[in-house]
Amino acid sequence: MSDACCAGAPTSRAHLNSTIASVGEAITPANHVGDQSQSATADLLVVGRIATGDPEAPTAEAMAVSGGRIIGIGSFADVDGLTGPGTRTVAPDGVVIPGLIEPHAHIWVSLLTLDWTDVSHVVCPRFDDVVAALKLAAAKTQPGQYVLAKLFDPSLYPGEPPLTRDILDRVSTDRPVVVLNASMHFAYGNSAALEAAGISDRTPEPTGGVLQKIDGRLTGAVGEAPAVSLLLANLPRPDAADIGNGIRQILTEFASQGVTSMREGMTGTIAGVSEIAMLHQLNGAQRLPVRVSTAQFSTLAGHTTPADVAAAWKAAGVTPFSGDEMVRADAWKLVADGSNQGRSGYFSQPYLGENTGGHANWTPESLREVMRAGLDDGWQLMIHTNGDAAVEFALQAAEELLPGTATGLRHRFEHASVTTDDQLARMAAAGISPSFLMDHVYYWGAAFRDTILGPERAARLDRVASAYRAGLRPSLHSDYNVTKVQPLHSAKTAVLRRLEADGTVLGPDECATPEQALAAITTHAAWQIHADDRGALRVGMRADFAVVDADPWTSDPAGWDGITVHETYIDGTAAFSS
Questions:
Q1: Measured between alpha carbons, how far is 430 from 422 in angstroms, rounded to an integer?
Q2: Ordered domains of the chain (ranges, CATH)
Q3: In which band, very low, low, confident or very high, does the pLDDT at 338 lie, cut at 50, 70 and 90?
Q4: Can you give the pLDDT at residue 85?
């Protein structure tokens, strides 16, 4: 089995593929830095309050930059002699901090729903609020046009209320209404949406998909990509300008949270090599507001084996660390299991109230085949593992395959949501680091504890402190758009582990120190995406930084999510301004 079944990509592919593919597959890095050379004289001097993120020298009052890199930082005396007549001086109104690193987010699969109505639990804390938001959106939509909403998650409401066609028919009868589950594994439609998609009570279920029925009548809920794609088949398609604007909108949102580098977590799933070509074209036309590291997906349409997929990437010139300083290919992505809150994550014990613990998306043999295809070409492995059984499944394969392969690739387990002490120790021994979707704890912790996993397993969710104790270098990520890109909110959650639902602390032994949490969104996250020249402000590093209104290294973690970002800079030049 391939991991395409759990990517949520076929829905997006149907709507975005032809437009993205129209840009072609020619990859032309812009190389904005080009031949810009570093000299002994700064072209930029930054003065003011500087929090370096370097524990050896945590603060500074001046930073000298030449050719996009830091050539001096410290007191005014430390940079004396590094300036000249051509040096430009900036004195930001706020605290200068290292640019934050988002090590796992999704640009492409987020484009489909970018402008859809947000009915997440954050925006709609009660189920009645979801229905009210949909009614408001319908009132603003012309008859016959789609009402589209995203990020609905029944697991966050008491009793996990179903969103049925009958409920959605009360939202509108003359406008198709479609709501996408936060996991993208499920969707919900009213009668008009089912009719527009040509789905009736007699429609056969597509292979691998579910058209939910009760007593032979469609409920409006559909499951898994083939059925979700069927429901969304007639949505309007965006043009290339829309997609380009959407990418910039997403990356600008990241920059507004202090992010200067991000990892795109599943590149190629919609339009293959054309996705990278489009990123380079956009960056060539105007520098992107955030650096993009790409993780090449191990399953591509039209290619039947992992070796074929690897060959296709290589033939297009997409090889490890190819690209430029703004768009670079870095990893090989595969997905071992599904979503914990959707009960498709792979666990060694059943979910509460069920008799199964999910399942793996691969056989042991096929998992090794797809991992080997990436390793043979020198890629960093980036493996989605949610349940403890998925971690074990992938870890056993890694322990078998990694010895004798290229070292220093910093292989990663994504989410590693529920782990054991033994697994963390073995990850460290194998050279695998975890990246935690930290706000799983904040938003879903109570649901995991009370209705999905139970208290014991929920307490082992996102074990940042234990990862550090095992000698690992963990990072924190958003998995955007599963959660919003808010690195400082994620870091706050890592320290406090307080639940949104009731304010209790989930797994207090797993509370990270403030220093550990901040390293996980700066230096460790940068290290995981092979960006050792970012994440801290010291001599030799890139001048990627943000200007904020409070220093997270000296302020109370409880207030980190309230810190405002005023500006971000890449290579010492402005990338975002509020």
A1: 12
A2: 113-231 (3.10.310.70)
A3: confident
A4: 94
